[in-house]
Amino acid sequence: MTSDDAGEWPPMVGPVVCTGLRVEARAVRRGLARTPVVVVGYRARRADRLPASCAALVMMGFGGALDERLRPGDVVVADEIRGAGAPVPCNAAHLLAEELIRDGLSVQVGPLVTTDHVVSGAERAVWAAQGARVADMESAVVAARAGRRPVAAVRVVVDGPGRPLLHPGTLARGLAARRILARTGPALERWGALLVSRGDVDGTEGTGVRTP
After folding, report:
1. Torsion angle, alpha carbons of 25, 139, 92, 88, to 10
2. Fold exhibited by the domain 2-196
3. CA distance 113 to 131
4. Cα-only R_g, the chain
5. DSSP conformational letter for 41
6. Which pTM was predicted?
7. Taking the domains of the chain in order of start, what are their residue ranges?
8. Nearest 5°: CA angle at 106, between 101 and 109?
């Protein structure tokens, strides 16, 4: 099931994946068997497309690293989404990270910050000094619309310190990140099934995943 255009959603038991761009949606869908995907647009300008009811909202796509320890192709699972308002905790982040690691992906957990522009240059260091690890332009907007529903955010690193977005190497890094994003679907669906079966989002205990 997909939704690139506004419309009515039927009630859903599992999570819904949200992407900012269609290219991200196409990549994510390759690994999904039953999870719907909605494209909310650049900077989540079409967040009105989000369903009124689902088990969780999961932002997925590409992101910019703020932490020098992150490399292109690394997957960052947010344990907190920061934006203009109060930070939103992602309580099942470690559980999701564990499922992604099971599929052989290089995964780290940490805070994500949403901005209204592409973060570059010295600004990366400013955010990194505040503990943020990756940046995007949609997650906080989606999280603000989630209400009491749990939220999650998964970003595959394309650019970062020493690897600017406007660089000839970005195309190759973007293609590699798209392949990695396409591998995230099975882990996401296992995670969603766990959330539904548990009836809660407490996934932080006993996972063995540590934040660097």
Report:
1. -170
2. Rossmann fold (3.40.50)
3. 10
4. 16
5. -
6. 0.86
7. 2-196
8. 80
CB-CB neighbours of 155 under 10 Å: 28
Question: What gap in Å lies between CA 48 and CA 104, rounded to an integer?
Answer: 35
The pLDDT profile of the chain, 212 residues, written as one tens digit per residue, is 455 544 455 556 689 999 999 999 999 999 999 999 999 999 999 999 998 888 899 999 999 999 989 999 999 999 999 998 899 999 999 999 999 999 999 999 999 999 999 898 899 999 999 999 999 999 999 999 998 889 999 999 998 876 656 566 677 888 989 999 999 999 999 999 988 887 654 333 333 333 34
Give the integer Cα–Cα distance in Å for 92 and 98: 10
Alpha carbon 97 to chain centroid distance? Answer: 11
CA-CA distance, 78 to 62, in Å (whole number)?
A: 13
